[in-house]
Amino acid sequence: MIMWGDTSHLEALQFPDPRITVKFDVNEEEARQTRLELMCQIAEKKYLVAAAHMAFPGIGHLRSVGNATVGSYEWVPVIIDWEPTRVKTANFSV
Q1: Widest Cα–Cα separation across the chain
Q2: pLDDT beneath 70, residues of the chain
Q3: 41 in a domain, yes or no?
Q4: What is the CA radius of gyration of the chain?
Q5: Cα–Cα distance measured from residue 91 to residue 40, given in angstroms and rounded to the nearest whole number
Q6: 35 is a domain residue
Q7: Helix or strand run (H / E) with residue 60
Q8: Of the four listed, 33, 35, 62, 93, which is most buried by Cβ atoms within 10 Å?
């Protein structure tokens, strides 16, 4: 599982285009490059992610979509069954 804090600030902007930076990225170029590399790796390896700035439950996967040169992604949240011993992920396929 990958836990990220400020890797992404706005899902609606930075998942379709991770190159977008915001004023909270102190070093915009470094933040852009880190986001591009990390999101690519997470999607390829199908890592589970615990992410800040995401809607509840804030845990899920990234799926590559659209133009591979831009590196667009969509969020696939886990599905919580509400039985304390069971957590399911959404139907996750590439």
Answers
A1: 43
A2: 67-70, 83-94
A3: yes
A4: 13
A5: 20
A6: yes
A7: strand 59-65
A8: 62
pTM assigned to the model: 0.76
Check residue 86 and give its pLDDT: 60
What tokens does 44 get? 């390829």
31-48 confidence digits (pLDDT tens): 999 999 999 999 999 999
Number of domains the chain contains:
1
CA 70 – CA 56 distance, rounded (Å): 27
Q: How far apart are CA 30 and CA 26, in angstroms?
A: 9
Pair 81, 91: CB distance under 8 Å? no
**Does some domain include residue 26?**
yes
For the chain, percent helix, then strand, then coil, each to nearest 5?
25, 25, 50
